[in-house]
Amino acid sequence: MAAGVAAVLILAAGSFAVGTIVSSDSISDSSGDTQQVALPTSSADLTPARTLPDAPGPLGTGADSDEPVADVARVVAPSVVLVQADLGQGSGIVWDAQEGYIVTNNHVVADSRNVQITFASGATVPGEVVGGDSRRDVAVIKIDPDTVDLVQAVFAPAHTVEVGQLAVAIGSPFGLDQTVTAGIVSAIDRVNREAGSDLENTGPVGMIQTDAPINPGNSGGALADRQGRVVGMNTAIRTDGRTEGNIGVGFAVPSETVDLIAQRIVAGESLEFGFLGIRGQSPTDGTQGAVVASVEADSPAATGGLEIGDLIVDIGGEPVATMDELAAQIQLYRPGDTIVVDVVREGASVSLVVVLGSS
Fold first, then answer.
1. Where in the chain is the domain with CATH 2.40.10.120?
2. pLDDT, tens digit, for every residue of 117-128?
3. DSSP alpha helices (H): ranges in the chain?
4. For residues 193 and 21, is the Cβ–Cβ distance under 8 A?
5. What pLDDT, in 10s, does the model give residues 225-258?
């Protein structure tokens, strides 16, 4: 980011907040007590990778359509809703039709307990906020599934998302429900280092960047691919600090993150994020990974054998390209989760088993 440029990130709900985007290669995990847990005795004890099934979307993988955006809108729009909360409005996506669960951004529902949900058909029903995660900005709403016909969205796994592919955004900008805009995926794994709906407790979150026009009210809505699968939840836009309108730089929380957090919310599980206990930086020579600059004493990283100078290239089976990516990935795990951390140490590949602590 150029010095003196006051870029800001605007949460794209009807009632929105502002947070500065910071560009830096160095990051430290939160300080605090760490959890001391015995290392596992077998690979069966390792926390499994979290991925969505690679199922085809409603439009399949056939030949290109003459009107791909129209086709996507036709199949995805019935799964996208208008969410009206106490302090504003936004959008939502039908996540579980059988149980009546809808996902949205946490900043859309804010402190609301009860909301109103309007569907593409025009039907409006009451909804109850089950819970939300302010750090990852994901919340879950429940409605009575017997009151309206629900069309469950199909969510795409992260590995299917490519830079340059079609991206169709559906939501309710400025309360204009069922608005469709289109563009491309501009970048993947774009880490917003001050993400979340609580500006006093932000953190790094890996996101999908798109130039599909997103504006206040789009928050919680769908970003879909050519097959009619939801690849992300539209969440924020970046501006130049002088305007609050869209200038072609929007961000969506990836579907896998939305699905993971929604599962934890519905199950009543802890939303606390994992703690590794290192400080590091991204390499400057084009190498992919995160270089360990320091290791906190008695931290999970120290107990697991991480050393200063290690180049972390993979955690839990997911490649690490930068220090920002490492920080964002770690915060998708929870205290007590056990992961394999692959590092390059003095030219040799080393795999370490680390039990994450509490933030």
1. 68-268
2. 999 999 999 999
3. 68-76, 106-109, 255-267, 300-304, 323-330
4. yes
5. 999 999 999 998 887 667 666 778 999 999 999 9
- Give residues with Cβ within 8 angstroms of 112, minimum separation 6: 85, 86, 87, 129
Query: Counting Cβ atoms within 10 Å, is residue 221 exposed (0-12), middle (13-18) or buried (19+)?
Result: buried
- How far apart CA 319 and CA 286 sit, in angstroms, is 15
Is 132's pLDDT higher than 60? yes
107 is catalytic: yes
The hierarchical CATH code for the domain 272-358 is 2.30.42.10
Residues 125-136 have a mean pLDDT of 94
Candidates 29, 133, 137, 337; catalytic one: 137
**Which tokens hold the place of 192?**
């917003």
197: left (phi over 0), alpha (psi -120 to 50) or beta: alpha
Q: Is 219 a catalytic residue?
A: yes
Place 163 in a pLDDT band, splitting at 50, 70 and 90.
Answer: very high
158 DSSP assignment: G
The confidence score (pLDDT) of residue 46 equals 60
Please provide residue 141's backbone torsions phi and psi, each rounded to the nearest 5 degrees.
-115, 140
The one catalytic residue among 71, 91, 96, 107: 107
CA dihedral 144, 145, 151, 157 (to 10 degrees): 80
pTM, whole model, 2 decimals?
Answer: 0.82
Task: Calculate the alpha carbon distances from 340 to 48, 100, 314 in Å.
Answer: 10, 36, 8
From 112, 172, 186, 219, active-site residue: 219
Residue 232, SS3?
Answer: strand
Give the CATH fold of the 68-268 domain: Thrombin, subunit H (2.40.10)
Looking up tokens 């491309």, which residue turns up?
184
* Nearest alpha carbon to residue 22 among 164, 202, 143: 202
Annotated active-site residue 159? The verdict is no
Domain boundaries for CATH 2.30.42.10 within the chain: 272-358
